[in-house]
Design a protein that fits this description.
With 638 residues, the protein is an alpha+beta fold. It has eleven helices and 34 strands. Helix 3 crosses helix 11 and helix 9 runs parallel beside helix 10. The chain is globular.
Length: 638
């Protein structure tokens, strides 16, 4: 059959209500294509290469419908069933948007167990970074159920669930994210080329990416096509030392409370670590096949039980498995006594490494008796097999490298255009914090670029402002994260753009905070207010005006119509004030209706005020009447 539709048009898809509906695909050249849906028909003639596109009239929310496509000349017919009409959103960004619900356990245990929402559907775009634009992507629509929701983006699921409940219509999410990606990779080449800050970088990249010298290095690339300087696995020397065997004496190895990264346990380098754990098992388990659940392993592993290899995940320098929960079958032949020795060899060549769980995802039980499960969180013996030292990422831009200019737009966004959407949600910025000075322009570029690509000038856009991270400090004048947050809030100058403030939802020692559900809820609240016109607070207070009066500065805010309050009932803190000498002092701050007045006796003539200006300004408590936190701000541009 030559007839093929773009991959988003499949069984269980959600199409956007109240908008013309583009449907496109490929067939033989100059063929008449008839498309029908919900009582409407559209007809087109394919071009010489067989490409076709039709636009069906808008439909109201509802379904299920059948999407039918016929090509009479070729006697071909194609159908997709269980099509719902509702609200469709694109969810994109880096790892915190990609982060699955299953990896936020136990915080999300109840959310996952009750996730029976057949009207919520997800389509997850596989990661891909190849030179040149793609026409289509792999993937399939999945209905939301307890058995499927664990792999969904936690933030996007929380967002979709709130909209589904509030609007009472189906919600479809197209999830297209990649951990560690920068914003430049998600913007089209034509838009990057018009950004004066990016032109030299783009030109340098294009001089190298297709060159013979660059491709000469491709004789031994990583499996994903990247060429990098990251250390390769030196080999499994632990096997030769019998570290996998049950009778190996590991009493001299130290213990580590698992789950966690080995970096958080005081081992800052990348490398290869072994972890061992012995457990007693009941008589009823002997001679039976078991299921071993390790939780997520960052990044690759080889796992043994009683000396027998039961599974492995990852090869070479693949990094896509870093947050993937492992489940391995333990053969009955390995279960011969009352003791099981589990040995896990973990290879991590960059950033964090270890058995990262979470704890509720770690356990072992007979395959047919999960009720007798034994938990595996707690102390494990460990030993470093190979120490790589402090590894820095030095990938060669081009084929396979996700942070090349426009490469993720080409591979993971362009193939989705012009699928009808209501809007996009965006959680990204950690990867751009060191170059925060460019981010405000890039954020506006991305929003306007996607609106042009889809031909939807009012395409809604709601972004997550970065949460708190790194050891707490009250004030950091040169904080990259504070300046990145400032650049993100600059996007609010564009129409139909909202922001979820998350300065209270981060973790000092974890760039992937697990409390993701409130993030999605706040994104949904922003969308309900700004996109759907509901009478709810769009976000927390945003400082918009600063007036100097009687030795103090009065701060005025948007989104504070119901007044200001504190979330903990304590006096305000994290306000700093400075005079012309630019020396900041911790200010006395008090709420007066919808304003905050700040002063310090050492600053009789204040000219600047800052609030929560640090990577992790722990203790942010200023909020509006809806309990939503205030976005960090500064009045100066020093």
């Amino acid at each position: 059959m030559s007839l093929q539709l773009a991959s988003l048009f499949q069984d269980h898809a959600v199409l956007q209500r109240d908008q013309p509906l583009p449907v496109w695909g490929w067939t033989s050249g100059f063929a008449t294509v008839r498309v029908s849906l919900g009582g409407h028909v559209a007809i087109a003639l394919s071009n010489a290469e067989g490409d076709f596109l039709v636009r069906l009239p808008p439909l109201p929310a509802g379904g299920p419908h059948t999407l039918s496509v016929t090509v009479a000349e070729a006697n071909e017919r194609w159908e997709a069933h269980d099509i719902l009409i509702g609200e469709v959103w694109l969810a994109s960004g880096q790892s915190n948007m990609e982060w699955p619900l299953a990896n936020s356990l136990p915080l999300t245990a109840q959310d996952a167990a009750t996730a029976d929402f057949p009207g919520i559907r997800f389509f997850t775009v596989p990661t891909r970074a190849h030179l040149g634009p793609d026409r289509t992507v792999e993937g399939a629509w999945q209905a939301c159920a307890p058995a499927t929701v664990g792999s969904f983006s936690a933030v996007a699921f929380s967002f979709a669930r709130r909209l589904h409940r509030e609007l009472g219509v189906p919600v479809g999410v197209i999830a297209s994210s990649w951990g560690g990606s920068n914003i430049q990779s998600w913007i089209s080449r034509s838009t990057l080329a018009l950004n004066s800050d990016m032109q030299a970088w783009l030109a340098g990249y294009e001089n190298e990416a297709w060159s013979e010298a660059r491709w000469a290095l491709m004789n031994a690339p990583d499996p994903d096509g990247r060429v990098s300087s990251l250390p390769r696995d030196p080999g499994n020397t632990g096997l030769g030392q019998n570290w996998h065997l049950p009778d190996f004496d590991d009493s001299g190895w130290p213990a580590m409370d698992i789950p966690r990264t080995w970096q958080s346990a005081g081992h800052p380098n990348s490398g290869v670590f072994w972890f061992r754990r012995r457990i007693e098992i009941p008589d009823a388990w002997i001679g039976r096949e078991l299921l071993l659940h390790l939780g997520a392993v960052d990044k690759q592993d080889i796992t043994y039980v009683n000396g027998i290899e039961v599974g492995r995940t990852g090869k070479d320098r693949e990094e896509v498995h870093w947050n993937l929960p492992r489940t391995y079958t333990v053969p009955a032949a390995a279960v011969l006594g009352h003791t099981l020795t589990i040995a896990v060899r973990v290879y991590s060549f960059i950033y964090d490494g270890g058995l990262i769980g979470p704890a509720p995802a770690m356990g072992i039980h007979p395959g047919d008796d999960p009720s007798s499960r034994r938990e595996l969180g707690g102390d494990w013996r460990y030993c470093c097999e190979h120490d790589f030292g402090h590894v820095t990422e030095a990938f060669l831009l081009g084929h396979g490298e996700r942070n090349s200019p426009h490469i993720l737009f080409d591979n993971m966004i362009q193939p989705l255009v012009p699928y009808a959407l209501r809007g996009a949600i965006w959680y990204q910025g950690e990867g751009n914090a060191p170059e925060h000075e460019f981010y405000a322009r890039l954020m506006r570029d991305l929003i306007q670029d996607w609106r042009r690509q889809w031909g939807l000038p009012d395409l809604a856009f709601h972004l997550v402002q970065l949460p708190n991270f790194t050891p707490p400090k009250d004030h950091q004048p040169e904080s990259n994260w504070a300046r990145l947050r400032e650049a993100q809030s600059d996007a609010l100058s564009l129409p139909n753009v909202g922001m979820a403030v998350t300065i209270d939802l981060g973790e000092a020692d974890n760039i992937h905070p697990k409390n993701k559900m409130p993030v999605g809820e706040r994104l949904a609240q922003s969308a309900l207010a700004l996109t759907y016109g509901r009478n709810v607070a769009a976000c927390g207070p945003i400082a918009e005006k600063f007036l100097v009066e009687s030795g103090a500065i009065r701060c005025h805010f948007r989104h504070a119509e119901t007044g200001l309050t504190t979330t903990d009932g304590a006096p305000l803190r994290l306000f700093f004030v400075a005079g012309e000498d630019r020396v900041f002092y911790p200010a006395q701050a008090r709420i007066e209706q919808s304003t905050v007045v700040v002063r310090h006796p050492a600053v009789p003539q204040p000219v600047a005020v800052r609030y929560a200006w640090a990577n992790n300004p722990e203790g942010c408590s200023l909020a509006n009447g809806a309990g939503l936190p205030t976005s960090p701000f500064r009045s100066d541009r020093w």
